[in-house]
Amino acid sequence: MQEKPVKYLYLQPDAALPELAGLQRFKLILIVESEVSQMWMWEASRWLVLSGCRYMLAWGKECGAWQEAVDEANLERFDYGEIPEEDVVMTTSHEDDDLEEVFWFAKNRAKHPAQDLAETLMVHIGETDKRTEFEDLYKST
């Protein structure tokens, strides 16, 4: 399956979470450059899982905590019972990697065990929008 171009979504810390229209099941690159409240991180994790995130690569501040929160959100979604294989959310955190390495991994190694994820969403949480910078970096890897 041909991978579609990456979509970019910029969020300010603790901002309202928009509806993710037009996405079904997708791969997520989460770039966290700003601190957020713990409540917002958990709310955002639930939002991502319910919106169709099935593979999340977290990079930046507290990326290990984000990985835990997304894992927990998916368990919670299924009342801590058995999760259907197609709804398993794969998660990785990349605290020791450069962003270029995360982009390469997303393109070349991040595969879901039960389905092809042709769509990739890049969610950037920070103080300023860096769409052009991150899209250019993604294309160059």
Characterization of the model:
It comes from Noviherbaspirillum denitrificans. Residues 6-139 form the DUF7684 domain. This is DUF7684 domain-containing protein. It holds the Pfam family DUF7684. The protein is α/β, with parallel strands linked by helices and 141 residues long. It contains four helices and five strands, in the order ββαβαβαβα. The chain is globular, with a radius of gyration of 14 Å.
Describe what is shown at a glance:
Helices cover 35% and strands 22% of the residues. The chain has 141 residues and is of the alpha/beta class.
Major beta sheet, specifics?
5 strands, parallel
CATH architecture grouping: 3-Layer(aba) Sandwich
Report the sheet-strand fraction: 15-25%
Give the topology string: H per helix, E per strand. EEHEHEHEH
In the CATH scheme, the class would be: Alpha Beta
Protein name: DUF7684 domain-containing protein
Organism: Noviherbaspirillum denitrificans
Domain DUF7684: 6-139
InterPro entries: DUF7684 (IPR056101)
Question: Which structural traits does this protein have?
Answer:
Aldehyde Dehydrogenase, Chain A, domain 2, five-stranded parallel β-sheet, DUF7684 domain-containing protein, DUF7684
